[in-house]
Amino acid sequence: MIAQAEEKEYYTREEYLEFEVNSEERHEYINGEVICVAGGTPNHSRITLDFGSALNFGLKRQPYDVFVTDQRLWIPKKRIYTYPDVIVIQGEVQLQEGRKDTIVNPLMIVEVLSKSTRSYDKDEKFSAYRTIPTFQEYILIDQYKIQVEQYFKTGKNSWSFSEYYDANETLSLNSIDFEISLEDIYDRVEFENTETEVKES
After folding, report:
1. What pTM was computed for the model?
2. If you placed Cys at 96, which of 25, 48, 102, 189 could pair as Cys (CB 3.0 to 4.6 Å)?
């Protein structure tokens, strides 16, 4: 979700939050650096909405909250504020101390990959997410071809990995009782329109 850096080299958390509340655009904060989050492609939006809507419906009347795109997350050990594509929280939503708009207790996170942020989402961002005690599952969805990667926590420092390439396959989550076919994840996604690289969230 990284797009471009602001001119100033370093911001305090307080400066960032004050700036972000009054900004028309979303920005990530990575240990002092403020980075603009650009808009996504239609495919990115379709996948995020399809997955988030299916989760929200599937978890209806259960003790979970589903947030899509605009919910800010604070990762204290890495000093990062970020906006995951989809977040699932189990039980009560926990907020950063002193804030009413920033959560700290994700159970599961979904990121839709772009060409410009693929490595960051798989490596540095995943590493940061793993420092969150409540975080149990990570789903990465490619928007340019049918490919879904699934990571789920199996022990204190252990994670299991699975990947899916067939539209007829079903993704079954481990952190919650929920499953969705890849066909539904990629509903109305037009792969032929993604040849040109665009910097998106």
Report:
1. 0.89
2. 102
